[in-house]
Amino acid sequence: MAVTQLYNFNAGPAVLPRPVLEQAQAELLDLPGVGLSVMEISHRSADFEAIIGKARDGIRQLYNLGDDFEVLFLQGGASLQFEMAPLNLLHEGDKAQYLVTGSWGQKAFAAAQSVQRWNGAEIDLAFSDEDAGFTRVPDSNEYEIDSAARYVHFTSNETIHGVQWQSEPQTGKVLLVADVSSDMLSREIDVSKYGMIYGGAQKNLGPSGVTVVLIRRDFLYPKNGLPKMLDYHTHVSKESLYNTPNTFGIYIISLVCDWLKDQGSLNGIAKINAAKAKLLYDAIDASGGFYYGHAQKESRSVMNVPFRLKDGELEKRFIAEAAAADFVGIKGHRDVGGLRASIYNALPLEAVEALVDFMTEFMRRCG
Ligand code: PMP
Questions:
Q1: In the structure, what pLDDT confidence band is assigned to residue 3 with cuts at 50, 70 and 90?
Q2: What is the assigned CATH class of domain 22-261?
Q3: Domain locations in the chain?
C-alpha cells in the first residue's frame, strides 16, 4: 500500500527515520524469534532484556559514554526531570545555577525553585535574556559561575526559540546538567563536562513516553530517602525496570540507534544536519528581509528554525499554502509566532530542499 509522504516539520512528536518505521511495521505482529508483538511481551522477559540492552548500548556507543554513566529510560518527560534533577542532586546549602535561553530553560528554572522547599537548596538564575525575547546564548563573560555550585543547568537547544548552544557553556570544574530534548544524538558532545544529560525521546529518538536520562554515578548523592519513584537510585539499581517502562518506545530507540550508526554515527548525522540547516538559513538570509529568522546568527539552531514573514497576512497565506503543498507542522509556536521548521535527524534533505523551493516560489509570487 502506497502512503503519500508528507514533509514532516513537526516540532515533536516528530519525524522518525522511514527505515525504522518500516522495520517496526514488518515486525509489529511477530518480533523475529519471539512470535509475538514487542508490545505483548513482559518487560522482564529475556527477549525484552535484549531490546533494552541494545537501546542502552546504542546510546552508550553513540555518545561514547564511559562505564561511569548510567543510561536510564524513564517516563514523565523532560518535565519530570526538571524536578527530579534538583530533588536528587541538591541538598540543603547546595547551589545550582541556571542559564536560561528560552521557554524550556525558564520552565526548568521555575521547577527547580518549586522543589526548594524539599531540598533547601539555592537556585540561582545566572543568565536569562527573556527581556530581549530569547534570541541568543550568552558569551561566557555574561554569566558568573560560582565554583562551589553543584551544577550548572542549560538547555542545549531551545525548541521554541530556535536558540542552540554551539558548544557547552564554560563553567570551569562545575559539572553541567543539560536538557537536550530537542538535539539529543544530533552531534557529538564532550560528555566529560556533564553530570547529567536528559531529554524526551519524541524529537530525535523515538515516540513520546520515554525520557532518556544519562547520569554519572559519582555525581549522585548517596540514597537519602526520596520517594522511590522520584529517586534515581531506584531506577539505577533496577536498570529502568523498577516499574513497567515504555517497552515499545525503547524498542524504537534501539532501531533509531542502528539507523544513526548507518548515517555515520554522530559525526555523520551532524554533517547532514548542518547541510540541511544551512540550506534553510541561506534561503532566509537571501530573501532580502521577506523572511527573517528569530535567533541571532551565532546562536541559530540546527534543529528548529523559527522564522517570520514581513506581514501577518502573508504568514497566514504561507501556512495555508504550505499545508496544501504537503508541508506539515510549519506553523510557529504561539510564543514566537510566524513559522517554524523543525529539521530533526530523521528529516530527509529532500524535505528541506522542497521547503526552500516552496519559499522561493512563494516570495516570487508575493514579494
Ligand atoms: N525541554 C525541551 C527543550 C523541549 O522541547 C520540551 C518539549 N517540547 C520539553 C523540555 C518538555 O518535554 P516533555 O513534554 O517531554 O516533558
A1: low
A2: alpha beta
A3: 22-261, 264-366
Question: Does the CB atom of residue 156 touch ligand 1 within 6 A?
Answer: no
Summarize the confidence of residues 50-54 as an average pLDDT: 98
Contact 31, 41 (CB under 8 A): yes
d(Cα 306, Cα 328) in Å, to the nearest integer? 14
Q: Of 35, 60, 29, nearest to 47 (Cα)?
A: 35
Cβ density class 220-238: b for 16+ within 10 Å, e for less: beeeeebeeebbbbbbbee
- Listed in sequence order, the DSSP H helices in 10-123 are 18-27, 46-63, 77-89, 103-114, 116-119
Whole-angstrom CA distances from 171 to 2, 145, 340 are 52, 6, 31
Q: Print burial letters for 24-33: b (CB count within 10 Å at least 16), e (below 16).
A: beeeeeebee
Q: Which position among 94, 104, 124, 183 bears the catalytic label?
A: 104
Name the CATH architecture for the domain at 264-366: Alpha-Beta Complex (3.90)
Q: Whose CA is nearest to atom 6 of ligand 1?
A: 181
Q: What is the pLDDT of residue 5?
A: 82
Q: What average pLDDT does the chain have? A: 97
Q: Give the number of residues written for the chain.
A: 367
Catalytic residue among 94, 129, 193, 203: 203
Ligand 1 lined by 102 (C-beta under 6 Å)? no
Cα 191 to Cα 185: distance, rounded to the nearest angstrom = 12
Residue 271 designated active-site: no
| Sign of torsion over alpha carbons 239, 243, 244, 245 | negative
Per residue in 298-312, pLDDT (tens digit) is 999 999 999 999 889
| Cβ-based neighbour number of residue 335 at 10 Å | 12
The stretches of the chain forming alpha helices (DSSP H) are 18-27, 46-63, 77-89, 103-114, 116-119, 232-237, 247-262, 265-285, 312-324, 349-366
Tens-place pLDDT, residues 181-233: 999 999 999 999 999 999 999 999 999 999 999 999 999 999 989 999 999 99
